[in-house]
Amino acid sequence: MLQIARDRGIKVIGTASAANQDYLRDLGALATTYGDGWTERVRRLGPVDAALDLSGSGVVPELVELTGDPRKVVTIADLGASAFGVRFSGVAGSVPDALAEAAALIARGKLHIPVARSYTLGEAAAAHLDSKAGHTRGRRVIVV
């Protein structure tokens, strides 16, 4: 998502642990750490015109504060976001169009999708458990 936004000319501010700051920067984001005081650190990096919550870690109220409008915040991970006037979104738009855009970005060298680990189909349950643990820098792939 970050790489697609950057390709569209959008300035992206991302939050991650201290260990992942260089990773975010390598993807093209302005990076800061999450945790106490994160909203002030984000404000120092620039204005926030819109926000996307990908983690569901309870930050929706702060995102609304940063953008000034719940209509400028979307979450794919916080089912309680509607209590703050924020839209929950699953897959939006055309999946074939999104895949075509991703393929074009990959062909141009503008999108890199790191793979953290590959699993066999027989290891699908382990892949699911690993995915639930979170905090990885790449995708999990099931090879069929």
Record keyword descriptors for this entry:
alpha/beta, three-stranded parallel sheet, 144 residues, globular
Note down, in words, how this protein is organized.
There is one protein chain. This protein is an alpha/beta fold and 144 residues long. 35% of the residues lie in helices and 19% in strands. It is built from 6 helices and 7 strands, in the order H-E-H-E-H-E-H-E-E-H-E-H-E. The strands form 3 sheets. It has a 3-stranded parallel β-sheet, with helices on one face. A two-stranded parallel ribbon has the order 1-2. Strand 1, helix 2 (21-26) and strand 2 form a beta-alpha-beta unit.
- How many DSSP H or I helices? 6
**Roughly how many Å is the radius of gyration?**
16 Å
* Shape, per Cα inertia axes: globular
Arithmetic mean pLDDT: 90
Instruction: Determine the fraction of residues in helical runs and give it as a percent range.
Output: 25-40%
Strand content: 15-25%
Please state the structural category: alpha/beta
Could you give the order of strands across the largest sheet? 3-4-5
Largest sheet: 3 strands, parallel
Query: Which parts are unreliable, with pLDDT below 50 for 5 consecutive residues or more?
Result: none
